[in-house]
Amino acid sequence: MSWKSLILTGCLSASAVPAAADGHSAKFNYLLRCSGCHDRDGTGLPRAGIPALPGYIDAFAGDDDGRTYITHVPGVVATGLNDAEIAAVLNYVIDEWGDPSRIEPFTEAEVTRRKAIPVSDVVAYRRQIVQRLKTGGVAIADYPWP
Hints:
By secondary structure, this protein is an all-alpha fold. The chain has a single domain (about 5-40, about 50-135), classed as Cytochrome Bc1 Complex, Chain D, domain 2, CATH 1.10.760.10. The protein is about 55% helix and about 0% strand. Helix 7 crosses helix 8. The protein is globular.
């Protein structure tokens, strides 16, 4: 198994802990379920396929296809959070490392709707979005993998 696969597998395993709708804050859920891969400060590990959230989240959260992509990221899907909790965590991420004045907040209904959109290959889908955004002059954080 490559180090990339090992890191990604470890992150997915760590984030797959089931969550009850127990009223935890979005920050708590981010720290518990996302920071193992994206780190507490959102820096991620780009060489291992985990992008830094600063400089990255606005481009995707501000794009229709990007918003669908975010809801299909394996770490989001595997959190065990319900759709309202996922929306809250995504909004926390935007508030912390994006520009919430430019980005429409996620809602529970939107997360539910976007998760229902078939995305057979999330990596290929991401590549298409990045290519389109870069061609349109949108700055994307460094993300060399894949």
